[in-house]
Task: structure prediction
Amino acid sequence: MKTLLLASLLIFGLAGCASQPETHSMSERQNLRVDPEVSYAMTVTELFDQRLAQPGGDSLLQVQFAVEARSDAELAWTVIWFDDNGMVVKSVGEGYRKATLLTGQVRYFDATAPHARATSYQLHLREPK
Amino acid sequence: MLIRALAISVGLAVVAGCAAPARYIDPAADDGPVAMTMDYRDFEKAATDAVEDMLASGAVNNPDGSRYIMVVSRVTNDTMQRIDTDQLTKKIRVSLLQSGKVVTTTAVGLNGAEDEMNMKARELRDSEEFDQSGVMRKGTLQAPDLSLSGKILQRNHKVGKEQQVEYYIQLSLTDLESGLAIWEGETPIIKRGPDSSVSW
Result:
């Protein structure tokens, strides 16, 4: 019994000593970044995120946002995914997705994380040139 | 004669000086002009749409927790352009592999194995020249569970003084055990531009 207790303590001790990669954020990362040029023409009215449960037991982060246009406008957007340590999780594509909005139109967009290890994100909205 | 040659040289030098120099384009920040033909941005959009939808739908989640094995079947190019459909399927394969949910076999293909080395390496069996402990045993290749197939369509229309080119990228993921398409997707890519633009 004593041996078992000692072994358990040793295992817990070793697990506690296992070094996690150290990451430091230079500044607080915002989930939503909207360029000023976009703000003139439209407003982000909703931003939701949820974890989609998968049959294997893990889950995927999913983001949905809504944009309402005050005038006809073009929009480019992308979602960057991060893991627990703040490292970028590679997505399928690197480019911005383009969308067109008509005056008064509300459009909903969504994106799904490429891997279950993505735990946070940053949505960037900009005006395509 | 000398004056004419000099004038032509100066003219050529000026034209060459005005032409944009060759430069690299960063796919992550490319706001360049849109071509009427399909370019890398169109394939990227189609692959992103397909992979995100596959992941979100749960179609590529093996209930036993292991990775599905996928084979790439035929993706028909029904456009007026010469397209290597691997440009699309490779992106999908890479992303599914990175997702940890699907691995693609290169040992099976419609026109034979994608990587013929799968069988060539097995021809070393019983060769006295090779250490047999490293030669692949019989029955180690894995059969695919899923098949990715599809079609890329093109339709051209005249719209006023412009032309409209529509591309439809259609993909299906078939469960090879049941023959049922467990996921299907279509990404339309519509472009409108000068009638003089060429879309092939």
Notes: The two ends of chain B are 43 Å apart (CA to CA). Residues 81 and 97 of chain B are 29 Å apart (CA to CA). The first strand of chain B starts at residue 68 and ends at 78. Chain B touches chain A at residues 27-31, 41, 44-45, 47-48, 51-53, 55-56, 58, 61-63, 65, 91, 95, 98-101 (CB under 8 Å).
